[in-house]
């Protein structure tokens, strides 16, 4: 019997129950008992689904109210000393660390590998003392066991935990492994006592290029866990681990999970190296994307392994299913043809059980399921929804000249100076202005059909007029329309482009109670009609100052969507680029002289291994340039990036050749800009002078100081003044106050230069 299991199940709930329960608890609308009850119900529902799908093991311990890394930190007693005052009950402590308190900022949040999930970085220090408090964890395992199936607890492994944490005093995190693994050993013993046979221990860092010191710590750290009785399934995902197979096969673990979707080629090496005792868990169903599995192809991969491994072959999704939406059940508006091509978490469980039965009982036992899989795949392959001859033809006609501006930056800069007549240190914003409750209510009413299209348009125009008036009276130099009509920078364009489908309920947890609903790119992307031109033209008609057109870039559209798996990402990026290019050209034709193409997700598209960076950067830069380089020298192209470390990819950012880049820097006190200075970034740059993530209004002096620092690093003639990011999450009063200080700071500095 091939055994089926999963690495983790979506936590947020079929109807985002966790989100609503958390938010109601935080707002004082319900108590901790109610929240605990929702948690228990969600876990129970997840186990029942696994049981109904016939999985051989139920996964437990993968649930968290806010974040699993945070729960591990609490379970091992790694609560930062700065939070000692907040140590009360478990839930309150967790939320204090996750959300901050009046006296203490929250733990830092960062992306989980190359996903869009953000985890909380545990804070560690030299001589960190760990102690095990596994009460809640063990209780969850016991709850799962009460359902009568074998239960496999899930843990983040000690080395990944340390690697993903941060040290607050510069101490070496790796040096903490002996103390930490002692806690893991104690926990494993308790699990064994509770009757657990298998524990899944995730070490996703094995997919990275690890420093030798980290790699070499695996042997002693896992030796410290040996002999604790439960068998260990070492889980890796998101990429190839063949470069670490020597390390892995020397560990005292009884099984290995590998990602056979992202890196199918590693299966052969892993199978050869595992020996005659160990389990091979094959991540055969895509845990990162929403496409139905090609069951025939999967079987062709699995059959020879099944012959060799027999019961030691396990089947699973490639990674935790927390990265995909929970179920297709609630999608009522998706085109039925497209819906047939998809599999969300619950449908993926069904695929696992079909694969398992096909292996164990023969393909005849699942004839219907295989036939349906074949038919669905064939319909996708041949669908006229997917391929569009017009797009194919345009792609064939691409020329290198389309990815180049007519003149080099210095020439363009002269012409733009003449055309735009901007002062030194021009001031601008990143695009969005506050999304007020009124705007949201109007959009909701329009979507429900209660507000007509014409009335909705008028309402958005009122908002644009208001935003333009505010910016004029603040004295900003390059204005924006404020993005009132956009609920989300990717969704808005996805709605207007061909090749995209939007789901009703395809939510994926982003962090804590926050979820995103990535659109699905299923077909060749193209733009049937202009999207933003009317809005930009309207905004420009209200002012003599230049209005900046506002677009989302091809890499960000790609990165924040579920992407086709039937063609390379880079090809989809090029299609997106062409669609955006059409929009750029139309904006210019409509008299818009400044156009911003946002690429906040540019850096997060970087592959996990450095060896894969150059090809990615190459096509990502190309896609941006294809989108941008259709305008005259006089037209100024901006781009914006945030949440990023840029220093290691500066050559690529320079190669994008935007006339102006605005970046987030205020939280790092402009340190980020140093890289741009020493690299001698050639074009104009707007380092953010204030953090938009907080309602705090910074003083004029504060921003002046930051600008002075910036002037030391970058020639003031190439410097812009702007906030860190868009202002959609802020309210108008603080926005006006902060921007007025910002404009004053720029004016004061101008006089001094
Ligand atoms: N133009 C977008 C805005 O201002 C940019 C958002 C982002 O960088 N994430 O909201
Ligand atoms: Zn931003």
Automatic annotation (TrEMBL):
Keyword Oxidoreductase listed? The answer is: no
Query: Which pathway does this polypeptide act in?
Result: Amino-acid biosynthesis; L-methionine biosynthesis via de novo pathway; L-methionine from L-homocysteine (MetE route): step 1/1
Coiled coil, from the record: none
The segment(s) forming the Cobalamin-independent methionine synthase MetE C-terminal/archaeal domain are 425-747
Q: Name one GO biological process term.
A: methylation
Reply yes or no: does the keyword Oxidoreductase apply: no
Residues recorded as binding Zn(2+), renumbered to this chain, are 640, 642, 664, 725
- Keyword entries, A-Z: Amino-acid biosynthesis, Metal-binding, Methionine biosynthesis, Methyltransferase, Repeat, Transferase, Zinc
Q: Where does L-methionine bind?
A: 430-432, 483, 598
Q: What is its EC number?
A: 2.1.1.14
Locate the Cobalamin-independent methionine synthase MetE N-terminal domain: which residues?
4-308
The protein depicted here goes by the name 5-methyltetrahydropteroyltriglutamate--homocysteine methyltransferase
- Say which species the protein is native to: Caldimonas mangrovi
């Amino acid at each position: 019997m091939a055994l089926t299991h999963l690495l983790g199940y979506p936590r947020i709930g079929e109807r985002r129950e966790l989100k609503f329960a958390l938010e109601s608890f935080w707002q004082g609308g319900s108590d901790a008992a109610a929240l605990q009850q929702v948690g228990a119900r969600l876990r129970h529902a997840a186990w029942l689904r696994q049981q109904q799908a016939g999985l051989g093991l139920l996964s437990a311990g993968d649930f968290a109210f806010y974040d699993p890394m945070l729960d591990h930190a609490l379970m091992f007693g790694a609560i930062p000393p700065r939070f000692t005052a907040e140590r009360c009950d478990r839930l309150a402590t967790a939320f204090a660390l996750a959300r901050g308190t009046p006296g203490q900022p929250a733990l830092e949040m960062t992306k989980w590998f190359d996903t869009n999930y953000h985890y909380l970085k545990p804070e560690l220090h030299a001589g960190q003392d760990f102690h095990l408090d596994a009460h809640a964890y063990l209780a969850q395992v016991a709850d799962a066991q009460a359902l009568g199936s074998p239960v496999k607890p899930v843990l983040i492994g000690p080395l990944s935990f340390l690697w993903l944490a941060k040290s607050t005093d510069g101490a070496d995190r790796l040096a903490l492994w002996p103390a930490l693994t002692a806690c893991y050993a104690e926990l494993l013993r308790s699990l064994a006592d509770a009757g657990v046979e298998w524990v899944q221990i995730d070490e996703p860092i094995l997919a990275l290029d690890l420093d030798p010191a980290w790699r070499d710590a695996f042997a002693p750290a896992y030796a410290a866990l040996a002999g604790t009785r439960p068998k260990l399934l070492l889980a890796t995902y998101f990429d190839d681990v063949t470069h670490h197979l020597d390390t892995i096969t020397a560990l005292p673990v009884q099984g290995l999970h590998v990602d056979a979707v992202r890196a199918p080629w590693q299966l052969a090496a892993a199978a050869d190296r595992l020996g005659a005792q160990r389990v091979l868990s094959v991540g055969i169903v895509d845990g990162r994307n929403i496409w139905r599995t090609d069951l025939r192809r999967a079987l062709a991969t699995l059959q020879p392994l099944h012959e060799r491994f027999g019961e030691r072959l396990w089947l699973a999704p490639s990674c935790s299913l927390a990265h995909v939406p929970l179920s297709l059940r609630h999608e009522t508006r998706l085109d039925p043809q497209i819906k047939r091509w998809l599999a969300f978490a619950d449908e993926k469980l069904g695929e696992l059980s079909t694969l398992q039965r096909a292996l164990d009982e023969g393909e005849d036992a699942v004839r219907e399921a295989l036939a349906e899989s074949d038919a669905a795949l064939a319909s996708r392959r041949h669908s006229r929804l997917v391929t569009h001859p017009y797009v194919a033809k345009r792609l064939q006609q691409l020329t290198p000249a389309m990815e180049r501006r007519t003149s080099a930056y210095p020439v363009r800069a002269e012409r733009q100076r003449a055309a735009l007549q901007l002062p030194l240190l021009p001031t601008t914003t990143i695009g969005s202005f506050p999304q007020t409750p009124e705007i949201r209510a109007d959009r909701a009413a329009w979507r429900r059909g209660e507000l007509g299209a014409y009335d909705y348009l008028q309402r958005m125009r009122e908002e644009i007029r208001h935003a333009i008036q505010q910016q004029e009276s603040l004295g900003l130099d390059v204005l924006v329309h404020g993005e009132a009509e956009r609920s989300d920078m990717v969704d808005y364009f996805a709605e207007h482009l061909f090749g995209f489908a939007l789901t009703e309920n395809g939510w994926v947890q982003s962090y804590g109670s926050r979820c995103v609903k990535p659109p699905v790119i299923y077909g060749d992307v193209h733009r049937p009609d202009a999207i933003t031109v009317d809005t930009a033209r309207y905004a420009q008609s209200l002012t003599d100052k230049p209005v900046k057109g506002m677009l989302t870039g091809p890499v960000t559209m790609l990165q924040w969507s579920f992407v086709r798996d039937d063609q390379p990402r880079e090809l989809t990026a090029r299609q997106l680029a062409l669609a955006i290019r059409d929009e750029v050209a139309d904006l210019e034709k409509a008299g818009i002289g400044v156009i911003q193409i946002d690429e906040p997700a540019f850096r997060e598209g970087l592959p996990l291994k450095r060896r894969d960076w150059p090809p990615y950067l190459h096509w990502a830069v190309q896609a941006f340039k294809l989108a941008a380089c259709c305008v005259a020298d006089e037209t100024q192209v901006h781009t914006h990036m945030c949440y990023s470390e840029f220093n290691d990819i500066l050559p690529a950012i320079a190669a994008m050749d935007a006339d102006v880049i605005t970046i987030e820097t205020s939280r790092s006190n402009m340190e980020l800009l140093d890289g741009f200075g020493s690299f001698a970034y050639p074009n104009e740059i707007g380092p953010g002078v204030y953090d938009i993530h907080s309602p705090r209004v910074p003083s004029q002096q504060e921003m002046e100081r930051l600008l002075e620092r910036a002037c030391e690093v970058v020639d003031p003639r190439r410097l812009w003044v702007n906030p860190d990011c868009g202002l959609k999450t802020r309210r108008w009063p603080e926005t006006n106050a902060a921007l007025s200080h910002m404009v004053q700071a720029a004016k004061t500095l101008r006089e001094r230069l």
